[in-house]
Amino acid sequence: MESPAPPASTTPRQPTVDGPRDVAPVLRADAVTRVFGDGAAEVVAVDGVSLEVGAGELLVVKGRSGSGKTTLLNLLGGLDRPTSGAVHLGDLELGDASESRLVETRRKDLGFVFQTFGLIPVLSAAENVEVPLRLLGVDPAERDARVAELLDAVGLAGHAAQRPPELSGGQQQRVGIARALAARPRVLLADEPTGQLDSMTGAAMMDLLVDLVHREGVAAVVTTHDPLLMARADRVVELHDGRVKEPDAA
Questions:
Q1: What are the per-10-residue average pLDDT scores of the chain (250 residues)?
Q2: Alpha helices of the chain — where are they, by DSSP H?
Q3: CA 179 to chain centre
Q4: Which class does domain 16-244 fall in?
Q5: Which pLDDT score, from 0 to 100, does residue 13 have?
Q6: pLDDT, position 249
Q7: pTM for this structure?
Q8: How far apart are CA 24 and CA 139, in angstroms?
Q9: Residue spans per domain, the chain
């Protein structure tokens, strides 16, 4: 049986469209374009996208399937390099970084949440959350404390010893969120994190994400095509055919 989710907010947040901000961004994309193929087979998946997100802010990127959301997230997370334009994580330009620097950056500064959960089935919930800390060589006592803190934060303190097949979809996604935050990353990237969850569980998951992003001070970018989830964001941008769609005039 699924354990109760952390309390959801009773009042939906009022997201705003992307616009000028006073706080220096943690993550910034400047006129980023990604082209696949060439000639007649050329596909422009992301076309001149500029956006930024600050610490403790959750930015939702919305758009239909095929709008370029996943490609953009891959560029923001250093999993792919832009054809033109630049992605900056603080002072680091991801597109110019070496592969070894990107691996180090992804371990220390970037947390990823996947639609398919991405957990290791033979490891317990606690062991899955612990993986990033082991990769960074964190002291065992500190690892144990951080894992316990996060499992409690996502409402799974009583499920630490269970493996993913023994958990519900919502519980597995909560483990995935805890794992993504384990190393205290500067940026959290989530690709359709509620895509495999029912609407009620998905709404609770977004409330959990918002709470943890604000509590941990993480700059978060979440992709979704579900309009019900956008009310829980701090800001929203919309992609259409790889481009940022300008908001309708009032």
A1: 46 43 80 93 95 95 91 95 96 94 94 90 97 95 96 94 95 94 95 84 84 92 81 91 75
A2: 69-76, 99-109, 125-135, 140-153, 169-181, 199-216, 227-230
A3: 12
A4: alpha beta
A5: 46
A6: 44
A7: 0.85
A8: 32
A9: 16-244
Distance CA 129, CA 176 (A): 7
Contacts of 3 (CB under 8 A, 6+ apart): 155, 156, 158, 159, 171
Q: Which whole-number Å values give the CA distances from 35 to 72, 94, 121, 210, 224, in the listed order?
A: 11, 17, 35, 32, 22
* Side-chain half-sphere CA neighbours of 200 within 13 A: 4
Query: What CA–CA distance (Å, rounded) separates 219 from 55?
Result: 4
DSSP-derived secondary structure letter, 120: -
- Interacting residues of 104 by C-beta distance below 8 A, sequence separation 6+: none
pLDDT at position 121, please? 97
* Amino acid letter, residue 143: R
Q: What pLDDT does 229 receive?
A: 73
> Secondary structure of the chain: what % helix, strand, coil (to 5)?
35, 25, 40
